[in-house]
Design a protein that fits this description.
Distance between the termini: 31 Å
Shape: globular
Order of helices and strands: HHHHHEEHHHHEEHHHHHHHHH
Radius of gyration: 22 Å
Number of helices: 18
Structural class: mainly alpha
Number of strands: 4
Largest sheet: 2 strands, antiparallel
Helix content: 55-70%
Length: 430
């Protein structure tokens, strides 16, 4: 629960969104609203009003933008004609079926799991629409390829402005959220790396913040390739600086994504970038399939890593063990999953939760089953296919660079959905 200042910031945020829409063009206001929300609003806090799903900083921003844009006459279509809209509608239908097929209640130990009702179905649809609102708004308002350079520059500037706060936490430990809002919603021990810390600032988990910095870095590399300056700085210096910040975040996965993206941006032409982005995303998508078919070589990988880093091997073994028990639970209701109320998780005979969900894929599979899993990843993979298919239709080579960089960001988001849930509303917006 935030302090008085945190509550004031949260509840007054719709007024800030309204001011942004009144002060700036719609495109800039939408981008600024989502970016400022994930960087500065209280994290892990939500309010639960009757008849609607809990409202957190992201859904509050989505709801505020949707309402104010409607009353300002800036109407937009949620489902324009085309395959992506059909997939989105299909996904919503699956959510309804998932909830409808989980109307039964049960008890494990001293924990009661209620069956889902019509109210839960309505709440699930509203929550999903609000979660996907950045995608809807980005698709309708940020669809001009000539705006990409401005968006990339704004993204990099926001990253640069955030780094001084990160440097403070690197020295003093992750404390800003506690200092500003009076509470911390992350496990402090998870932010300790070696003899130092991973910064979190007001963003949330240090892993997610490192992933966001890597996204800013990809934007900076695209600007560097087009020789565009950021503020008064050359982009080469900006890229080096953000690389240093990313290394200081002590997150191996984010650094690996950065290295992969730099290889794509600087060594491949835009057409090949979109091609390999799609290929890698599809290959990674096969990991959950291999896990379901029980053909993924878990033990062999752990044994190999054990020779070099026993600590890393133990961490990976813990992840694989949790995925195994969660997968067994998911396969009890394979088609449409267990829906909400934590029914997809694993509990001991006393009703205590003994499972840890890291990857988005296992969450989606457990909650919405195979059908939800397939449609969810189709929502992410179809844009990569269209990106590769249409990039040659772009005449301006500078625009191709930005277009390919967007594909790389999305592909890395898909890749990261296997070990983590690092994809944020910014990736849906872009």
């Amino acid at each position: 629960m935030p302090n008085i200042f945190g509550s004031l910031v949260f509840y007054s945020w719709p007024l800030v969104v309204l001011w942004l829409l009144s002060k700036y063009p719609v495109k800039q206001a939408i981008f600024a609203a989502f970016t400022l929300a994930i960087l500065f609003l209280p994290n892990g806090f939500s309010v639960d009003y009757p008849l609607i799903p809990p409202i957190d900083r992201e859904t509050l921003t989505s709801l505020s933008l949707a309402v104010f844009l409607f009353f300002k006459g800036k109407k937009f279509t949620l489902f324009p004609s085309g395959l992506p809209s059909k997939i989105l509608i299909g996904y919503l239908i699956i959510l309804v079926i998932s909830a409808w097929t989980n109307s039964d209640s049960f008890v494990i130990g001293d924990k009661f799991f209620p069956g889902l009702t019509q109210h839960d179905i309505f709440s699930t649809i509203v929550r999903t629409l609000l979660t996907l609102m950045p995608f809807f708004l980005g698709r309708y308002f940020l669809n001009n390829i000539e705006d990409n350079e401005k968006i990339f520059k704004a993204l990099v500037v926001m990253g640069l402005l955030y780094t001084p706060l990160m440097l403070v936490e690197l020295r003093l430990s992750p404390q800003f959220h506690n200092w500003v809002y009076g509470y911390s919603n992350v496990d402090f021990l998870q932010q300790i790396r070696g003899d130092g810390y991973r910064p979190t600032v007001l963003y949330g988990h240090g892993l997610a913040l490192a992933f966001w910095i890597s996204t800013c870095l990809i934007a900076a590399m695209a600007l560097q390739k087009n020789r565009v300056r950021v503020l008064v700085f050359s982009t080469s210096k900006v890229v080096i600086y953000l690389c240093i910040i990313l290394v200081l975040c002590k997150t191996w996965s984010a650094m690996a994504y950065m290295l992969l993206a730099s290889l794509f941006v600087f060594k491949l032409k835009p057409l090949k970038q979109t091609k390999w982005a799609l290929i890698l995303a599809v290959i990674v998508f096969m990991y959950p399939v291999a896990k379901v078919m029980n053909i993924f070589p878990d033990h062999e990988i752990i044994s190999t890593i054990q020779e070099f880093s026993p600590e890393r091997a133990d961490s990976l073994s813990f992840r694989f063990d949790n995925e195994a028990i969660l997968l067994d639970r998911a396969l009890e209701r394979p088609y449409f999953g267990w829906s909400g109320y934590g029914r997809n998780r694993v509990y001991n005979k006393y009703g205590r939760d003994i499972s840890v969900t890291d990857g988005k894929w296992i969450i989606e599979l457990g909650v919405n089953g195979f059908m939800g899993f397939v449609f969810f990843y189709a929502i992410l993979l179809i844009p990569l296919y269209y990106a590769h298919k249409n990039i040659e239709n772009i005449d301006n080579p500078r625009h191709k660079v930005y277009f390919a960089a967007l594909a790389i960001m999305l592909a890395i988001g898909v890749i990261d959905s296997v070990p983590n849930t690092g994809m944020s509303i910014m990736h849906l917006l872009l």
